[in-house]
Design goal:
The complex is a heterotrimer of chains A (297), B (333) and C (437). Chain B has 14 helices and 2 strands. With 333 residues, chain B is mostly helical. Chain B has one domain: MetI-like fold, CATH 1.10.3720.10. By secondary structure, chain C is of the alpha/beta class. Chain C has 2 domains: 169 residues, 3-Layer(aba) Sandwich (D-Maltodextrin-Binding Protein, domain 2); 223 residues, Periplasmic binding protein-like II (D-Maltodextrin-Binding Protein, domain 2). The longest helix of chain C is centred in the first third of the chain and has 29 residues. The chains are: A mainly alpha (297), B mainly alpha (333), C alpha/beta (437). Chains A and B meet through helix 1, helix 4, helix 5, helix 6 and helix 8 of A and helix 1, helix 2, helix 4, helix 5 and helix 6 of B.
Amino acid sequence: MTTITRPPAIPGTPLAAPTRRRRRRGNHSAGWLTYVVLGVTAVLFIGPFYYMIVAASRPMSEMVQSPPPLTPGPNLWANIQTALNQQDIGRAIVNSVIVSGTVTIATLLFCTLAGFAFAKLRFRGKKVLFGLTLGTMMIPPTLGVVPLYMVMAELDLAGRLSSVILPTLVSAFGVFFMRQYLLQSLPDELIEAARVDGATSLRTFWSIVLPIARPGMAVLGMLTFMTAWNDFFWPVITLNSSNPTVQVALNNLGSGYVPDTAIIMAGTLVGTLPVVVVFLLLGRQIVSGIMAGAVKG
Amino acid sequence: MTSTVPVRSAPDAVPPPIPPRVAEPGPPTWRSRLFRWEAGAAPYVYVAPFFLLFAAFGLFPLIYTVWVSLHEFRLNSEMTWVGLDNFVWLFTNEKFYNALLKTFTIGVLSTVPQLMLALGLAHLLNYRMRARNFFRISMIMPYATSVAASTLVFAQIFGRDGGFANWMLSLVGLDAIDWRNGDLTAQIAIAVIVTWRWTGYNALIYLAGMQSISYDLYEAASLDGASRWQQFRHITLPGLRPTILFTVVVSTIGATQLFGEPLLFGGGTPNGGAVNQYQTVGLFMYQQGWQYGSLGRAAAVAWVTFLLIVVLVLLNTAIMRLRTAQRLSGGDD
Amino acid sequence: MDTRRTRTASVVATLTVGALALSACGDGASDEPAAAGGTTDGRTTITVALFGTFGYEESGLFEQYMEENPDILIQYESTQGEDKYWPALQTKLNSGSGAADIQGIEVARISEVTANQADLWTDLRDTPAGERVGDYVSWKADAATTADGKVVGLGTDIGPMALCYRSDLFEAAGLPTEPEELAARMGSWEDFIALGEEFQAGAPDGTAFHDSAGGLYNAIVSTEEQIYHDESGELVLESNQAVRDAFDLAARAGQSGLTAKLEQFVDPSWDAGFGSGTFASIACPSWMIGYIKGKAGDAGSGQWNITTLPGGQGGNWGGAYLGIPEASENKEEAAELLAWLTDAEQQAAVFANVGNFPSNTGAIALVGDTTDEYFNDAPIGEVFTTSAENAPTQILGPHDGVAKNAMVQALLSVEVNGVDPADAWEAGVSQVLNQVR
């Protein structure tokens, strides 16, 4: 992969005729104002996470003082130990990885397929079916737990990870998202050309749709993973602390009439850290996945 | 199919075209019949997984909720048929209308600024810059921070005695506000929490959408002398339209179902404040179903909420389609 | 590029299959849901599911029982919030599977259990736990007994009411600080209010006499026998003068600035108030002691003291029971464990470790002379024992939760939103009537 370096685009001046090259992402260069805005935003967004570290490392009574302390204290390791003793957070993390990972992979696959169908393929009943899909998104989730548990108990799945995985394996959100994304980024001409050339839908999907969908899939994958990781209303009902996901385990932390918020924060830190670390490490890949989209025209 | 023809263009720029096949003469072979069958059946196969799973795990809860809404039902007690009584109770209940109003106001407060901020942030993130990865990862941090931890922080920020917000107010000489007990102030506080949590989420969605807008368009526009703002308005926004529609619809649905943030702002109680100043419909339903145990009434609320959302979404799509039609006929693009 | 994508695809496919397989066999092998107990290597497994406040695990009682009974394996799990625990339990009871052998029941739920769910729970009289039935404070045991005498739960802890106060702040305001002196000054709730007004006159700025009108109201009604329902289960909220009087008194206190206007348990300023002295007194069930220690920290040691409610009345706030769902398959062994856990010695051990006051009369005798250094060596054992003995047998009813919630909300609106007490009362009552019609 060779790149021909070119001087940064200066608006208004004619550019040298662009030759075919690996297109460097990023049109304009960021000014100082951009850095300031993004910097402030980053501080605001990361602040509470930092505060979680502070709260996890100090005794509970210090956190209710006003003004509250802003720097970490000495108890972090001790609190983490206590939290790990109270709940099997290690096993919970493994379970959550299994659940979130499976859901993410399945969602990416099925939602991209369905999104492609709704976006670009012609078939009878498309509008109705898509309307139905959207409709399922509008059902309030909190009530469904009672009948859902009944179903799971019938299938003898209650308490198992499958009971948490199966209902969220494909989501209307994902279908809708991929449909919009493909509508926007997949030109009809490409599909037509492929059809004319005799490609089956499957082949079209594989060779044309997937590469173009990659940025959307990267974002959908990330969001799906996080949503699955943070999901707790249903898992708390069906799972218990012998087979928990992270949220279930964290929900069971603390005991007594006065839950020790420092322990809870320490446990939450341990439960959230894997996700954050993964995104820090893979962030480069994911972000460049977002960036390396195919280009129209 | 055969292997791809080597392409001289740089990899990853444009997907390689499928090499042409020799046209098949004569009567339709089984192969071309298979091909046509595949083209017809494929869409149904592709959307099938979603509907199958929904039929298995979504349909029964739905029907069950309808059934329950026509009964008076406390879990593990008897179910007594009451017909439409629950709905009558609902529509003559002033708390319900209060919840609807609050949902609307909090919804507007938390959705409109959020989406605009997200759009702006995505645009900024699209620039070439240093530490790009860091900024982009920071977008998802609020969503990754657990709800419990972030609620703790915001409860402290909006605390009456010694909260951060009141401290800032005192710096400019204003009196401390009792955020959680005031009407508008509590709604603003919740809107801030929701905005904080979801802006980065939507910014990343917009960012992904922006990747599919060709840079050449921007180049051409800047050659023509268009300012960055004009480029944003005339290239970015139209190109993002499907994505914007998506975020508007999803945010609307999310705003109508808003229940986690107000629940936790209220310390885990679904009252929504002393005078229900921030009790959303979602919270109202949760209170009926899980605090008071009236599942029948909660189911009725769920169904009315559902119909409400359907109406809202249809309205939304109609408006957007209207504006698209206007734009197209106006030739603004 | 084709090969790369094919490779990615095969990786993804393998991962998916692997993950699904892992979840399937991972579940089967080691993660049997802790629902039905069974026999593991010759031992009987008893599952115990509680919410956060019981203190058995912290006191090492499960370990001890397993040591003394090597043929029993206890699988314990706890959900921190009772408000998450109860929906989960109800859902499991509803579908007939998934509940544990022993489940905790909070006192706020017990009347619903006895009224509507009696057939879902085992009658403990028919089990080895039956011999314990008479060991508890009478009003505690009565609440878990159905109309036809079926006993669905044995009492664990109770929350006898007292009054906790900041002796240093009282001193600064010129009030007496010794518990006996204060008790002598407080013959009635009116006296309490008068004391409060005296406090406000001499108190430092930013300190209120009491924490919240709602808390005061709850303290007053906890000493009443009949609150929201009468014996036949009818709602008497509107007609019960005792409730109206308590409401008016608390509203008066709220309006005249005697309270710090804080919503209990949910307002972070309330949490902060323990240490920062925003309020000088608080209605104190026995478990509030732990709250005070946790929130005020070491800095608060020696600043607090405790005395009886005005007039030496007794009341109760909180507490729980242990019950055995009818669907359990190990009723015998579970009942034996239940009986042991609620026995005098064990309840005394829990009190020593986590501060939950016992409901077993034998245990109460054991802890009668406990003192607490944090509270200036106050004889907390004695104070709470007296309160428990004086507490009336309260009539519980199905709409208690709705009524209590509405009343506390109404009082809060008087405090912070300036609503007129009469209007607030009307609003609260109509809210309750609207909910229960």
